[in-house]
């Protein structure tokens, strides 16, 4: 944390910050936070091009997507879409946890946590909300219930500030818990969505101990109701919630409920989520139904199979993960694409053949091989069209062809990669691996 403290001290010297930003041809808006501006200007460990990309990416969310509301909450849009996604907003502000010693950063994060709790109470099945707290999209995605919990847990661990866990936050997280308990057997659920098959109910599933989900982290309908990366993320998030229940709210009854749900999910993953392939051995499936069917693929959106150790479910050296990673980063994965400038995971959410920077960054964050990380960074720089921002997806043969001009999530994830791997920041807190 020593380097972070230096950044906070330097942030008070506004003239110095402005000078450093000017060196990269940047501006410092009134909406930006001095600690973030200072960090953005202090890049080291790579080329000028890499520095420009890092600087703009770190500033992107706070510059373009964050607004401070009259109810003391923080509203975070995804970039070029004006709604607030629970998943995206949590991921977008995650690298700012490195600078939580700064009061302005801390206040912004507290506002995000408070707003997400209000959103979850408004409709726990919804994944996106408007500024007035009305639902923008009611695509039930299991990960959307866990991202706010993980953000709050990480904020607490990084800042030691437990006052963020208000009664309203407790009510929101326990409403999410109740929904997850209900959706262990989807036959009892009244949730329907017009994009799902079977009259809006989705494909049939068996009761497995896992939690049913309607949509993937890409916002696309799930083929089968148990998305294994989301189940893994739930196991991690519930581990964090159990700790909050025990150590902050001192609620042993709820802690035991959370632990029971978490263990059922882990048992379900181990029983139904692992499949054998002749080429790769045992790997994790992307989706299963508990009835013998599975989807073998990976999608760039996180949670993903590639992101398993980043999520904190198990280590990068776990044998099944190693096999799964080899599968994901091969053309056996139907959404792995290669081109002149990049090769990586895409998504059925975007044009066939397009690579997602989100997955390239995740490949770097989950790699223990410095040359692989360097190669990933080079591919990301090659995708830069001159705006020094990462887009949703791009044609690996022609990066000027891309989707979404402003997409905050990959920019924030890239900032975390640079801070962690190039600039030597202490990694953000992670839970004890529940999948081990």
Please give a structural write-up:
With 436 residues, the chain is mainly alpha-helical. It has a single domain, classed as Glycosyltransferase. The chain is built from 15 helices and 14 strands. It has helices at residues 2-11, 14-23, 34-41, 48-65, 86-93, 103-122, 142-159, 167-182, 228-247, 252-272, 308-311, 319-328, 357-365, 370-382, 408-422; strands at 66-68, 74-76, 84-85, 128-129, 135-137, 226-227, 274-277, 281-284, 287-288, 294-295, 336-338, 343-345, 393-395, 398-403. The strands form 6 sheets. It has a 3-stranded antiparallel sheet with strand order 3-4-5. A 3-stranded antiparallel sheet has the order 6-9-10. A two-stranded antiparallel ribbon has the order 1-2. The chain is globular, with a radius of gyration of 21 Å. The two termini are 29 Å apart. Residues 1-30 have low confidence and may be disordered.
Number of helices: 15
* Top-tier CATH class: Mainly Alpha
Strand content: 5-15%
Tell me the total number of β-strands: 14
Taking all residues together, what is the mean pLDDT?
Answer: 92
Radius of gyration: 21 Å
Question: What characterizes the major β-sheet?
Answer: 3 strands, antiparallel
End-to-end separation in angstroms reads: 29 Å
